[in-house]
Fold:
Amino acid sequence: MSGERGRRVALRTRLAVVTSAAVALVVVLTSLAAFLAVRHELGRQLDRNLASEAARVRAQAKDPEAWWPSGSCRYAGGPACIQAVDADGDVVTEGDETLPVDEGARQVASGRRGAYYRDITLFGRPVRLLTAPIPHDRAVQIGLRSDPADRALLRVGAVLLVVSVGGVLLAGLLGWAIARHGLRPVGRLTATAERIAATRDASTPIEVTGADELARLAASFNTMLAELDASVTAQRRLVADASHELRTPLTSLRTNIAVLARADRISEAQRDRALDALDRELTEMTGLVRDLVDLARGEEPAALLEDVPLVPLTAHCVRTAERHWPDVTFHLHTPADGSGSATGPVSGSASGPVEAAVVSGLPARLERLIGNLLDNAAKFSPDGGAVEVAVSEEPGDWIELTVRDHGPGIADEDLPHLFDRFYRSRSARALPGSGLGLAMARQIALSHGATLTAANHPAGGAHFTLRIPSAV
Ligand SMILES: Nc1ncnc2c1ncn2[C@@H]1O[C@H](COP(=O)(O)OP(=O)(O)OP(=O)(O)O)[C@@H](O)[C@H]1O
Ligand SMILES: [Mg+2]
Structure:
């Protein structure tokens, strides 16, 4: 469990780190972009000032005799200095200090090169220098101190650095908060799963808030919990019901065994009766246990399904029922009859090969299902009563199997409970049985994708219908 907790913490940390890193990256990149933009703009502004100064000088220098002063770059008072050079590189203006004259300046003066900018250091200060052509084969050099702009840039850089560091710290805080808040539902889910694992109690659902992905996850988790709970409850009830139901036959078994234990003191007739009862009770208990095992088994494994021709299977079930219930007459109607009319006792009628009505399923299970319906019909039939069994093909690839008897039918209040486990109507309690037959029949039907319903025939008697998908 501590390993799971460790993974959860690690996930939270990972989420926090990823979120913070993303936000921090955006903050740092934005600051860097802002810094570069400011630097570029300040540089451009310096160059624009120099260019407009050069244009002014060019206009003034049309007159070769015009006098214009050269400013000094040495003193802070004059940020600009200016001088003119001729094609030989000689400074033609007067001034305290001269700006450095390079080959480029001579080329500009002689008209072999256009204006250009340079960064130089003058008296220990950074200076931006523009050399531009002016009339009379001269070039003007204008220097402008760039340290005020550099200082401004430094200030902007410092502000942006503070903003970035603050942004990164804030991003870390936000990432941590987002991870903490975002993973809270996951934490709740984990806690619930751990609780269920520890207590095996799946009855308390998780609280679902909102409609996001995690809420949907919680909702599906709840659905899963509900199903788990239902299945656990069903299993518990089955075991409780089963142990209750087994108690009665076990008691009578014990009584009869006790009777037989006194074999020397009872008459032969009494002993035979006790043996008969013992035999009956053992048969009943064997059936009960078999039904319970079947019910607990649930779904059919799909791999074992095979094509089952329903008519021969039904005919086989009818023959078995005829042997068990010699006082009842069974009639089987099949698709091959055409007319759908009664054909008399099955042993004489269902001998012809019938290809139609093939379903996909487990023959043994389907036999139990049909056997249970026939058993009920015969059990509730009056002596000499008739049971009609019909197999017919329905539109939409369905096969319908109906079993109808001429007994008392089913009371309206019993109809909704007929397929419940251990349910037996009041009138049926005098007859043998445990009330598992129909529950099992319906379970088999469901696992074959079929439906099993009960009704009363308009002309009297119970009428059971099995609708099962055709396999062809
Ligand atoms: N053909 C029928 N006519 C009248 N009532 C029926 C018929 N079939 C079933 N029932 C009613 O439905 C109840 C449940 O039937 P089910 O087959 O599950 O149990 P059972 O026959 O009593 O016992 P088991 O089949 O386990 O031996 C019966 O007890 C009876 O009340
Ligand atoms: Mg039954």
In short: The pocket of adenosine-5'-triphosphate (ligand 1) is lined by residues 372, 376-377, 380, 405, 407, 410, 414, 418, 423-425, 428, 433-439, 462 (CB under 6 Å). Residues 339-354 have pLDDT under 50 and may be disordered.
